[in-house]
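Colleagues,

For the teaching module next term, I've prepared a clean inverse folding example: a structure given as tokens, and then the sequence designed for it. I'd like students to try predicting residues themselves before seeing the answer, so please don't circulate the second half yet.
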């Protein structure tokens, strides 16, 4: 009878160690990719919240007052905190609006997921454009009525 040869205990243990290390690395990579996917989703949603707040400023059609304001809003079944800062610019007819967004339950002041900046011009009052055009036409008419002498 021929003696059957199998794996020794040391060979089996070495194989298990290699398998455990490999599976540990795979699990670590999978966890990293999972956390990264959640982070990217949060950043995308925060960007949408920032865009929505900027559009609200744009649709308001009033001269945005300087200073800070903040609020909370729900999107995608999560609560978000936004902060709007309005600053003057060297051009007195322009203001810079910066909106930052983070999750409402974030405690860290550096946890802002999105930041969006835009510039808004001072709105023209209703009828002002028509008045300006009428004044230009009147001035052109007066200039055309004046002729140079012989």
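(Answer key — instructors only)
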């Amino acid at each position: 009878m021929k003696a059957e040869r199998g794996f020794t205990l040391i060979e089996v243990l070495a194989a298990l160690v290699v398998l455990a290390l490999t599976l540990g690395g795979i699990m670590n990579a999978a966890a990293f990719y999972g956390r990264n996917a959640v982070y990217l989703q949060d950043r995308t949603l925060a960007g949408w919240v920032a865009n929505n707040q900027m559009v609200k400023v744009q649709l308001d059609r009033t001269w945005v007052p300087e200073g800070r304001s903040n609020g909370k809003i729900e999107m995608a079944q999560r609560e978000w905190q936004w902060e709007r800062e309005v600053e003057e610019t060297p051009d007195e007819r322009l203001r810079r609006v910066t909106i930052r967004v983070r999750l409402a339950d974030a405690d860290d002041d550096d946890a802002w997921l999105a930041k969006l900046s835009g510039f808004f011009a001072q709105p023209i009052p209703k009828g002002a454009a028509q008045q300006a055009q009428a004044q230009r036409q009147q001035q052109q008419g007066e200039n055309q009525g004046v002729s140079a002498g012989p």
